[in-house]
Predict the structure of S1 motif domain-containing protein.
Amino acid sequence: MHIKDLVGQITTLTVSRQADFGYFLTNGEEDVLLHNNEAKEEYRIGEAVEVFLYIDSQNRVAASSFLPSVTLGDYNWATVTEVKNTFGVFLHIGIQKEILLGAEDLPALKTVWPKKGDLLYITLRVNKNYRIYAKLASDEIMKEKAIKADKKVLNKNINGHIYRTSKVGSWIITAEGYKGFIHQSERKREPRLGEKVSGRIIDVKEDGSINVSLLPRKQETIDDNANNILSYLKDRNGAMPYWDKSLPEDIAARFQMSKAAFKRALGKLMKEGKVYQENGWTYENKEH
């Protein structure tokens, strides 16, 4: 096997000689350079060294004793370190060289491209010129990685990272290892590829995968809407010309909520004694 055929992989080579700029390692037939910058420590002639092989800027096979968290055919999470609109995103895999995930492997919609700090589940691929690139895990790979969810986790809060995204929905791997789908109706916006999101399990399927909603629970929505109404009242010194019989379009324009949602939130505030209604107006109960 030629040494080039091991590019993108971890292998063990032997130190054959030392130079001012690094070490030459051999497999018995070919030598590769382990530059001083890529050497974790000092080595002796004849010592066996575990290294990762890559192609350097001068198109030569080179070695690094800094070992990556992901190699050719093996998968792991990698952190996005930089986004280049033309080229794609660069990922940190534990070595000094950052790895490119090309634009052709990213969503067509750039608003859902990963941002710095997002996590992607990847492996490495080597092109015909032996250049190393990142490759996203397929849905089949995620299915193999996933843990089957039990029915008892229904309605449980979860968080995880988006590994695939489209207009119809987003696919997630949770911190527990569940594979899930977020339908477009269960999100306010389309999450980025690699973005960490929080939601809840709304269905557990027979195959152990889950359906997830990123929308708040009904009570959480009511609480948020009630707080918004109360905040608006306080800004107006405790009085506003809106009540439960106001026109839906007026409520939507002022509070960005439906009339039904407005009435539920207003009803909560009235039940708690925080507001009262009179002659088409709503007032803050300042004695409460």
